Amino acid sequence: MIWLSKRRTIFFMLIPTMIVYLGYIIMPVLISFYYSLTEYTGIGTAKFIGLDNFSRLMNDSLFWISLKNTLIVLAVSLLLLLPGAFLLALMLNVKVKAGNAVKALNFAPSIVAPILVGLIWVFILDPQMGLINVILTKLGLGQFALSWIGGKTLTPYSIGIVFTWQMIGFLATIFLAGLKMIPRDVYESSSMDGANKIQQMFRITIPMMNETVKINVVLIITGVFKIFETVLLLTNGGPNHLSEVMVTYMYNITFTSGEYGYGMAIATVTFLLTLIFSLIYMTLSRKSIEE
Q1: Number of folded domains in the chain?
Q2: Cut 0.85: pTM above it
């Protein structure tokens, strides 16, 4: 009876969380999928058309451009954020004067509104009036003044750098928490056995940070696939949609073109890709640990 009582208590305590989860996570996904199977303009009745929107998606060159740009941003973010945030966490783990102030300053970009992030980086990267190109021109290096944003080639890489700047403090804080959880006794024992700092790093610190790395990779994947405001301010997907990422393309299709059904198809694919990438990574990382 006591066991039944505990089970019942746990069940009732989980009900509010499950209601919120169903209402804010599951239901929007299901509604989005339903409208992705329809032709709907936001007014009147949705007309069921089956998988026509997904068939159209496969032949939509702009969708593939937005997917390519999103994957470039993801690759740049993973390459810069993981080592960058980890090294930053190692530096923050060293006790120094005003250490708390340094940690707060490091975290600051993460709490800046994405719209403000976009505005800040427009003034840095804009081809005509951006700080980088102005400085290069003043130094007589005008040949290196490139179209960092708004061009065909460099824009997704620039978006990846902006996303890195925005997220590095947050991910470094998570890495720092992981470093704090490693028992000091392990380092002391290894030192007594003759291990130097480099050996401790590769044989103790990095292996014991596996779960923290996994969390940060998933956060990067989900963060990249929902980038919106920053890209909207930087380029608004232009010129000619060449710098679209998946969320901005979905937004423009849904709210600018009024094709709600097709926009929901893009949203559904975006959600599925986020889920697939996260599951693949977690599965591969689990297998590597077992081996």
Answers
A1: 1
A2: yes
